[in-house]
Amino acid sequence: MKNFTKTLMGVALFFLAASASFGQTKLTATSLSSAVTSSATSVTLGSVTGVTANTILFIEDGTSGGSGQYAGRPEAMFVVSVPASGTTVQVQRGYDQTPPAAHISGAVVLLGPASAFHENEPTGSCTATAIGYTPYVNLRTGNQWLCSTIKNSWVPGWFNVSAPAGVSAAVASVAGATNPSGPLFHVTGTNAITAWGSSTTVGPLGAGGSHTDVIGASFCVIPDAAFTTTATNNIAKASTAVANQVMCFTFDQTNSKYVASY
Q1: What is the pLDDT of residue 69?
Q2: Spatial distance between the Cα atoms of 14 and 28, rounded to a whole number of angstroms
Q3: How far apart are CA 78 and CA 129, in angstroms?
Q4: How many CB atoms lie within 10 A of CB 41?
Q5: pLDDT digits (tens, 9 = 90+) for 230-250
Q6: Sign (positive/negative) of CA torsion 6, 8, 14, 20?
């Protein structure tokens, strides 16, 4: 398996070089369209855009994180083939020694070349524009990490509870759908937010939480001004933020909506 992994890493090096030339590339996100057993050799995805043979699928059920344990049973899969039509792809399970596991329908899937994934936690300082792919995913722990543009340091990403939250990039409130940059971030402006994350994708950076998802990552914001939210799409109720008072949004899986802390 180690030789197999090294071969894949070598084949995918040109992807890393290409992305480094243009700054960081966000890993493509989709979801599982149906549940997967621990022994299945095919998976059905919400979309196969960007999926080719040799693509790595990282399946995140949303409960992983911390202590180097597979608490939420995240797993990486190696794509063997992609059909000419349809969204069911053939896979090799347990890529890079991640344990094959059962996954629920709707589980978040991050996909990219082998070089986009890692076997260790990031350390030291970082520069967002110099990183090949984001989020930084450690296959050994399932932890996702983000390079904060505030302090140029690593902060926990979605579903990562192995370290205290850190502020990621500030986000301007949009008169419409606003994409969170991480589990904790500043919101600038006063525009009315009508949705968290796009309704046509699996949320921000694979966080989940669109109004059709069953998994959503909770997050908190630090308002720089009194922006508002409306009770539309995946937002449960209208609310008004208070400048410098933290507002947290918890994803309610029953209604597939975010519920504000005030």
Answers
A1: 38
A2: 18
A3: 27
A4: 11
A5: 999 889 999 999 999 999 998
A6: negative
According to DSSP, the β-strands at 133-134 and 257-260 are unpaired
CA-CA distance, 174 to 160, in Å (whole number)? Answer: 26
φ and ψ at residue 54, rounded to 5 degrees? 85, -5
Q: Answer whether 237's CB lies under 8 Å from 259's CB.
A: yes
Task: Report whether pLDDT(203) > 50.
Answer: no
Rg (CA), the chain: 18
* Rounded-to-integer distance, Cα 163 and Cα 171, Å: 22
Which amino acid is it at 135?
P
Contact 230, 176 (CB under 8 A): no
- Model confidence at 213: pLDDT above 70: no
- Label residue 169 exposed, middle or buried (CB < 10 Å: 0-12, 13-18, 19+): middle
Q: DSSP per residue over 171-238, as a string?
A: EE--SEEE---SSEEEEES-PEEEEES-TTTTSGGG-B-STT-S-B--EEEEESS--EE-S-TTB-S-
User: In this predicted structure, what is the pLDDT of residue 68?
Assistant: 36
146: nearest Cα among 160, 2, 225: 160
Residue written as tokens 């001004």?
A: 225
* CA angle 178–180–184, rounded 5-degree value: 140
Tokens of 47: 């979309």
Q: Which pLDDT score is estimated for 205? A: 39
The separation between CA 169 and the C-alpha centre of its own chain, rounded to angstroms, equals 15
